[in-house]
């Protein structure tokens, strides 16, 4: 059933074993719950301007990007989000912005998007599980939104939260993860021009399984930092808790910068498998900061990245 190849660490590797077994048993009996919903995309076309930050590497196909996903709110297999995320209602949608900002409030997504010019950002995407893709995201710089709401000088971090709606996100009825999924960035990471809020991919609105209607993309960090279906953004002076760090602090740090020299305790991060590359393509070398060192290495120049993994 699993689409993962044996070379990829699986969910069994990234979660405590007891949780994994529990969950598999629960999910085995949960098929009926799924309503058989098919993520039948009714995509609108979107105009987006090209960006100097795009890679010229060949993007993965829409099919690959939308059928091999991690979105634990919909299940634990790579194929679950495509199968079950169709039931998520993403309109209306708003984001609550609070904490150390001049203009806190609940912002309808339409108002957030009205003044922005969407860009296409073709980014490398590297999961902590050692697979990678190239994805043509559509979005805008997170700094654009943060500047509009007015970040106060006391703010040192940005915390993000995913929607909690168990009736549409069946994975949230299971234990293991302390829902809702939460993530965070240091303020300078959040303000970096590479950091975007993405609302689409290829020329289409964001498919539900990829984090509709709006998600974070931080291309120099492992994929788990790129939180999906965001409903809350908080500016704070304390490092916020993050989902994977809470679950396995020795394995998943707050920073989670792609780093071929700092292995996961249970597998190497030196190489990666490009999804869709074909059976005989072989693994490719993982690049420091996923190849974005020129843009971001200075953010970490005084830090020991083996300690702040
Ligand atoms: N965000 C939420 N809310 N829930 C998740 O399970 N998974 C993360 C990240 N964001 C996840 C999430 C992980 S582990 C990865 S690798 C990426 O989403 C996967 O994004 P993709 O499915 O669009 O490739």
Could you provide a short overview of the structure?
The protein is an alpha+beta fold and 309 residues long. The chain has nine helices and twelve strands.
Overview of the structural elements:
Helix content is 17%, strand content 21%. It has 309 residues and is α+β, with helices and mostly antiparallel strands. Strands 3, 4, 7, 8, 9, 11 and 12 form a seven-stranded mixed β-sheet that branches. A five-stranded mixed β-sheet has the order 2-1-10-5-6. The longest helix is centred in the N-terminal third of the chain and has 12 residues, at 17-28. The chain is globular and about 50 Å long. The model is unreliable at 1-6 and 16-43 (pLDDT under 50). Bound molecules: ligand MTE.
Could you state the order of secondary-structure elements as H and E?
Answer: HHHHEEHEEHEEHEEEEHEEH
CATH architecture: Alpha-Beta Complex
**Gyration radius, rounded:** 18 Å
Distance between the first and last residues' Cα: 32 Å
Q: Sum up the overall morphology in one term.
A: globular
Task: Give descriptors for this structure.
12 strands; alpha+beta; 5-stranded mixed β-sheet; binds ligand MTE; 17% helix; 309 residues; globular; Sulfite Oxidase, Chain A, domain 2; 21% strand
Topology:
Elements: H1 11-14, H2 17-28, H3 62-67, H4 80-84, E1 94-99, E2 105-108, H5 109-113, E3 119-126, E4 131-141, H6 142-149, E5 157-162, E6 182-186, H7 187-191, E7 196-201, E8 204-205, E9 215-217, E10 230-236, H8 243-247, E11 271-274, E12 284-285, H9 293-296
Parallel strand pairs: 1-10, 4-11
Antiparallel strand pairs: 1-2, 3-4, 4-7, 5-6, 5-10, 7-8, 7-9, 11-12
Ligand MTE is lined by residues 69-73, 127, 162, 181, 210-211, 223-224, 226-229.
